[in-house]
Amino acid sequence: MADVFALTSANRLMIADFLEGLDEQAWTATTLCEGWTVRHMAAHLVQPMLIGFGRFFLVSFRYRGDTARTVDHFTRRLAGKPRGELIALLRQHAHDRVDPPRVGPMGPFAETCVHLRDIARPLGLDAGVPVEHWRILLDYLVSPAAAPALCPPGRLDGLRLTATDIGWSAGEGESVSGPAEALGMAITGRRAAYADLAGPGVPRLG
Length: 206
Known about the structure:
Blueprint: H1 4-20, H2 24-27, H3 38-50, H4 53-60, H5 67-78, H6 83-92, H7 106-120, H8 131-141, E1 159-163, E2 168-170, E3 174-178, H9 180-187
Parallel strand pairs: 1-3
Antiparallel strand pairs: 1-2
Helix pairs in contact: 1-6, 1-7, 3-5, 3-6, 3-7, 7-8, 8-9
């Protein structure tokens, strides 16, 4: 079994290097996450290491338990830090083992895979994690253990998923096929990835 913590650490360091190579204008560019720029995304990637679960839980009461709004709250606060500091923090905490309640270590791992493309795709850049990381993530997303925040219950019902570049498939039903990255992005709600997929089941992804 892959050491998910080690893979997450490697991906964080890769993302830090990628972010360091972007100019200030790129940091103001929009990402695939609505309302967030590259700067917001960089802040979000360090959030799990800087904000303890207890603090997160307490602040969530302000938003009536709405996790998404609580995440946005901390992301926007951290986004006020200088660009260089955010990159340094991502490197400094790259090896932190984050194991969130209800999500586990696969949550932070998934974020490194997906959020790098959330940043790079709108910029027209090819930066991405190794393709084998997408295989690991796909296996998780189609499993009963998948976090609802990543793959809502029922999203994949009646679909046959095929990653054409890694010889991976899962499920039964209408076909959805394409690169592993595109499948992972689409399953986690990135409609921009639909353009890289084929099959009658694509519209059913939501």
